[in-house]
Amino acid sequence: MARATLDALTYRYPGGAADALSNASLTVDGGLNVVAGPSGGGKSTLLRVFNGLVPHFHGGRVSGHARVAGLDVIATPTRRLARDVGFVFQDPELQAVYGTVDREVAFGPENEAVPAAEIPRRIGEALEAAGAAHLAGRTLRTLSGGERQRVAVASALASRPAVLVLDEPTSQLDDEGCEMVLATVRRLAGEGTTIVVSEHRLERLMDIATAFIEVDAGKVRALDPAAWNAPPQPVRLQPATTRHTEAWCVRVASVGFGGTPVLEDVDAGGCGGEVVALTGPNGGGKTTLLRLVGGLLAPTAGKVVRRPGRVAYLPQNPAALLHRPSVRDEVRFTLDRAGDGTETPEAILEELGLSASASRYPRDLSSGERQRAAAAAVLAGSPSLVLLDEPTRGMDARARDALIAVIARLRDRGAAVVLATHDVALRTAVADRVLSVAGGRVMECVK
User: Which of 21, 110, 152, 404 could bond 11 through an S-S bridge, CB–CB 3.0 to 4.6 Å?
Assistant: First the structure.
């Protein structure tokens, strides 16, 4: 029996100018079902049908029919669907309930009235399967974005759902975490769990996919996984023609939280007109180093020096930046504060493919579109120092290429760029140098 079916399902968000899903008909069976398509095309909307967030939480207009695990989605409350459907959001920050890892993973089983004696075993198994066993006992606020993503996957696994829906589950994971999550996906699919995964980086999934679903402009199509071809890799940037003087340096610096060091004796620096990429495991300290370089964290020892000029910082969670009525207003706010009257918001919005979304409320955008909106908001004008934390999270190949072009332009204007990323294609395309951040140390490495 099919685990999920959609029959002529059409859905529009409240105030939406167009249907997010249009006359979608689909059958989802067991195994690994891969969902792909451009940013803003409707992938996350489709996934949220499976657990009833669309339409119950978001509201809006809906017609047609949807059934998941034998339940009528439109007629069944989300609390009931949650017993059979596990869900991992694109933004793990949005689904955390408790402040500690163990309590967070226990939340689902507790609400399903799993016997108390059984819950510790569920927690341990789920954390192990998600590659997060070492995070047991930690508080969520001390975790990196990738570590939070692992905990979110574990939280979904702890309920042992019949259908597991994962929205960009590996977008912030290091290679080890990615392999552990994918190994768990393979095992669960083989054991009979229906897996639905939305991803932009499909290389590691398509060889084991049993179904391939494309979502574009609200249209849903079932395709043959064997017919999928990997998109071309981004072209490596030509070296900058001009290398400027040192723009930032960290000298014998240490930094930590609550007396616990994260990085020690760091010696690193970068020049204007140069792109430095940070690589390393989840929780290794990449975000901490970016914040240290940008002045958002003070060193506990040593010193940090930056040349004068504006610092543009893109955090892992773009929603933290977006508070204005429209995407255009977000960009204009940056330009006004920077006193840059030579550039209009439309220039960078066009560069990043956001012209059609300029008047939209940023928090109504898809995750990939929000990422681009946040990038536009911080990169507008002429920043002196650019700090980007997982900047291609949620971006499709076209959006990544557009961001690469913006990075190149800023670099050629003399900006110093530092980015932390697990996106190997991005790092290969833009980095002049690569720093490994792991085990509390920062070291220069071969790209």
Answer: 21
